[in-house]
Known about the structure:
Blueprint: E1 2-3, H1 6-19, E2 23-27, H2 31-44, E3 48-53, H3 54-60, H4 68-83, E4 90-98, H5 107-119, E5 128-131, H6 138-154, E6 158-163, E7 168-170, E8 173-175, H7 185-195, E9 207-211, H8 230-242, E10 257-259, H9 267-275, E11 278-283, H10 285-301, H11 303-306, H12 316-319, H13 321-343
Parallel strand pairs: 1-4, 2-3, 2-11, 3-4, 4-5, 5-6, 6-9, 10-11
Antiparallel strand pairs: 7-8
Family: Belongs to the class II fructose-bisphosphate aldolase family.
Keywords: Glycolysis, Lyase, Metal-binding, Zinc
Pfam family, one: F_bP_aldolase
Amino acid sequence: xxxxxxxxxxxxxxxxxxxxxxxxxxxxxxxxxxxxxxxxxxxxxxxxxxxxxxxxxxxxxxxxxxxxxxxxxxxxxxxxxxxxxxxxxxxxxxxxxxxxxxxxxxxxxxxxxxxxxxxxxxxxxxxxxxxxxxxxxxxxxxxxxxxxxxxxxxxxxxxxxxxxxxxxxxxxxxxxxxxxxxxxxxxxxxxxxxxxxxxxxxxxxxxxxxxxxxxxxxxxxxxxxxxxxxxxxxxxxxxxxxxxxxxxxxxxxxxxxxxxxxxxxxxxxxxxxxxxxxxxxxxxxxxxxxxxxxxxxxxxxxxxxxxxxxxxxxxxxxxxxxxxxxxxxxxxxxxxxxxxxxxxxxxxxxx
Length: 351
C-alpha cells in the first residue's frame, strides 16, 4: 500500500469517475479503527480514503488535550507509517466536516503547515480537506470556499465542499429532515461560476462537491429518508451543457461528487448516485456499529471472564484489550470490504 501523492489522488478520482465506481471514505478515531480500515481495503484490493472528523481529530490527540491539529498530525504520521507496509493499493487521507467555527483551529492551520511542506519540496500530510458550509448562506459558503481553494492549491490538496444541508447530526452539526436537503441546478451553476470546474485545464482535481439530494447522517428506519439521486444526474447534465466551452470541462460529469449520509440507503439508490459521478461515499455509522457490535458480543459471551464476579479473578486473556480489539477490527474490516464491493471499487486498485 502506498499513501497517494497529489498526482495519484487525482488519478484515483478520475479513474473512479470514468470507471463508474466510488471509494468508501472511512471515518476513524483511533489506531484500531485505522488498522481496521486498512485491513478492509487490503482484503478488498481496493484503493480508498481514510478520514478524521472534527471530533475524531480532537479525540485522536487524547481526550484531555483535545487539540485537533495535534490529533491530525499524529494520525497522519502514524497512518502513513502503517499504510506503507501494505502492498498493492493506494490510500488517501482526508479531514471531514470542518464547520466555520473550527476553521481557524483546524483546517486553516493544517493547510498552512502543508503549504510550508510543499514549499520545501515535501508531500502534504493529507490529500484533501472538507469545508462544511452547510449551515451558512450559499454566498458565504462560496466566499470561504474560494479562499480555502487558494490555500488548498498551494498545499497541493483537494478541497471538498458541501452545498446544501445534510439532515441528522454529525459532530455537533445538525439539520432537520425537510426540503432544504435538496440542492438545485442553480446552486451548482453558482458553484461552477464562483470556483471554476472541479478539474483544471490539465484534468487535475481541484475540488469535490457534496450536493445534497435528501442525505441524512445517522441510522434511520426505512421510509424516513427520501433520496433523489436523479437530482445529481440533472446537476451534472445542466452544468456540463452550460460550461461546455470551458477548458478541461468534462463532457458528462463536470463535478467530482461526494455522497454524505448514506447509511441505510437502498442499493439501487447508491448505484444510481454513483452512476452520476459520485467518486467518494462517506462511511461512518455502519463501521462504528460493526466495530462496537463485535466488542459487545465478546463482552456478553465472556461476561464472567471479563468481569471479576463474586470474588473471582476473571480471565486476563479475555479482558486484554487485544482480545476484543482483534474481533472489533475484523468486524469493521468486513464492513469496509462490503462497502468496496457495493461501490464497485473492490479489485480495481490502481497499483
